[in-house]
Specification:
The complex is a heterodimer. By secondary structure, chain A is α+β, with helices and mostly antiparallel strands. Chain A contains twelve helices and 24 strands. In chain A, the strands form five sheets. In chain A, strands 5, 6, 7, 8, 9, 10, 11, 14, 15 and 18 form a ten-stranded antiparallel beta sheet that branches. Chain B has a three-stranded antiparallel beta sheet with strand order 2-1-5. A two-stranded antiparallel sheet of chain B has the order 3-4. In chain B, a hairpin with a 6-residue loop joins β1 and β2. Chain B is elongated and about 40 Å long. The chains are: A alpha+beta, B mainly beta. Chains A and B meet through loops of A and β2, α1 and β3 of B.
Chain lengths: ~475, ~60
């Protein structure tokens, strides 16, 4: 199971681009135009041009995750709207990773001790980005107490041939590990891997406790054990995926901070320049014909896999508290700040229990509870429910003093906590099961009338009529 | 933290101008106030501390210390 096997089966969903696009904004510009057009092929840039104009020996693969439908299909789903339940189910059925030797690990076909990170086709994606960023780097650190590893996609900027900045959000599990190493005055073993089968990438983003390794959850979601190999620098203490395309190894020294950012973030805004950790690179290992994988930051490609993992995590958290919960959606429009929760005939109190629990999830700012008649994936319907089923004095659940998503651009300066909002946009419950809810019904026309109208429209050319 | 009433919006980004190429870019007000870490210009790559050589524009900066 690897990236190239996946690409071989993509068919028309993969666009191979022979034009020599620059890694400086041009590949990302193409993703923006495709997003604007509502088209989401995976992109394979055969001959990317480096910043100095030289051709890169490595192709760039990006936009792999931009389509929810395609990502859901990886989970075996015919409908992306079922992703929350499926992700929760698969994450709860872990498969232990499989250790292999170095000769069995394609990612160690080439071991470069004389590393030059500038040779990687790392993209400078947007205006104001501080430099070339490894955006699809799955960063691994260790918890020094337990020795358990953690994997997370976090931004790293190429600072020099053997140097990167590394910005794990302050409340992330990698940041917790780094703080522990720093308290000991010791450097933290580090590795990041780039490029793998999308199912492994998706599984590695499962939201877990700390400390808890992601490999078993990744295997569960991928449906196959992830093959791991000892890293060249750290040995079996820090394992890396044997079937990845590229691994960068090194250490994060204690007490060292460097500037990182600006960087165009998942919020759709530029993240400010801030203090970040540094990585001293010791080795780069890769396949002989490695592919360089990238996420288009702030685009669907970046948000879809993470949001699907959030949907699974929220469903798994809330379902035991609220058995009437049917579905969860973390919409692209809200970045990672909004969640829509769908209920069918909830008991009194159940919706507010679920809203309160959902808001404890650091990344969320707002959770909205909706009935089963509202399509969570149609935001006109969500806003209609907000407009017609909510009285703010009754249905707004405001909780102060909760942890926040660090990159929220609206955070008050210096705020350690924020106020979050739960909104109960469900209808009042029926007096008894099977009885009508004490609420007016939505406007409707009879099915026979709709049939008659459809017949009238059947042969009409509507192309010249006004649109919205 | 600011003394302003909580309903008055305060920005949380400062804008810095590079002393070499004059490019403006957004930075964390705490990064500027603490002066522990050299800033890096995204335009020309110049490293510099947020001393008098850098121009800073932000109402958020007063809240960072």
């Amino acid at each position: 199971m690897n990236l190239r096997e996946h690409l071989a089966g993509c068919g028309q969903a993969l666009w191979r681009i022979a034009e020599p696009l620059s890694v400086v904004e041009e590949i990302t510009a193409l993703q923006h135009l495709l997003s604007d057009a509502g088209r989401y092929p995976a992109l394979f840039v055969e001959r990317p041009r480096l910043a100095d104009g030289r051709p890169s020996a490595m192709p760039v693969v990006t936009n792999l995750f931009a389509s929810r439908a395609r990502v859901a299909a990886l989970l075996g789903l015919d409908d992306h709207r079922k992703a929350a339940v499926a992700f929760a189910r698969l994450a709860a059925a872990p498969r232990a990773p499989l250790a292999v030797s170095r000769v069995e690990a394609p990612v160690q076909e080439l071991v470069e001790a004389d590393v030059d990170l500038a040779a990687l086709p790392a993209l400078r994606q947007h205006e104001l980005d501080a430099g070339h960023y490894v955006t699809a780097g799955h960063c691994i650190t260790l918890d020094p107490d337990s020795g358990i590893d953690n994997v997370s996609v976090q931004r790293c900027r190429v600072r020099g041939p053997r140097s990167m900045s590394f910005y794990p959000y302050p409340s992330s599990h990698n940041a917790r590990n780094l703080a522990k190493w720093e308290a000991r005055g010791e450097r933290c073993p580090f590795a990041l891997w780039i490029g793998h089968h999308p199912k492994v990438v998706l599984g590695a983003q499962a939201k877990l406790a700390h400390p808890q390794s992601h490999w078993s959850a990744a295997g569960g979601i991928a449906g196959e054990a992830v093959r791991l190999v000892p890293s060249v620098t750290h040995g079996a203490r820090l394992m890396v995926p044997a079937d990845a395309e590229i691994v960068i190894e090194g250490f994060v020294p204690p007490g060292v901070r460097v500037a990182d950012g600006p960087f165009a973030e998942y919020t759709g805004y530029v993240g400010v320049q801030t203090a970040a950790h540094a990585v001293e690179v010791t080795a780069l290992t890769r396949r002989r014909d490695a592919l360089y994988a990238d996420f288009g930051a702030g685009l669907e490609d970046h948000l879809v896999p993470e949001n699907l993992a959030m949907e699974g995590r929220l469903y798994g958290m809330l379902k035991p508290l609220a058995p009437s919960l049917e579905n969860v959606h973390v919409p692209f429009s809200g970045r990672r700040f909004h969640a829509y929760l769908q209920f069918r005939d909830p008991e009194r109190g159940e919706v507010r229990d679920a809203l309160a629990a959902a808001l404890a999830y650091r990344r969320l700012r707002t959770a909205i509870a909706l009935d089963e008649d509202i399509d969570l994936f149609d935001e006109r319907q969500v806003l209609w429910a907000l407009a017609t089923r909510v009285q703010w004095h009754r249905d707004a659940l405001r909780i102060d003093g909760l942890t926040h998503p660090n990159l929220d651009p609206s955070l008050p300066p210096g705020a350690a906590t924020i106020t979050k909002l739960g909104i109960d946009a469900t209808l009042p419950p029926a007096a008894a099961p099977g009885k009508p809810k004490p609420f007016v019904p939505p406007n409707a026309v009879a099915p026979r009338a709709l049939d008659a109208a459809r017949k009238v429209l059947a042969d009409i050319d509507m192309s010249g009529w006004p649109t919205a | 933290m600011s003394d302003a009433p909580h309903w008055e919006k305060q920005g949380n980004a400062a804008w810095v101008s590079c002393p070499r190429c004059a490019k403006w870019f957004p930075a964390d007000p705490r990064l500027i106030a603490e002066r522990r870490v050299e800033l890096v210009c995204p335009g020309c790559g110049q490293s510099f501390f947020s001393t008098d050589t850098a121009r800073v524009a932000s109402s958020a900066l007063s809240n960072a210390t």
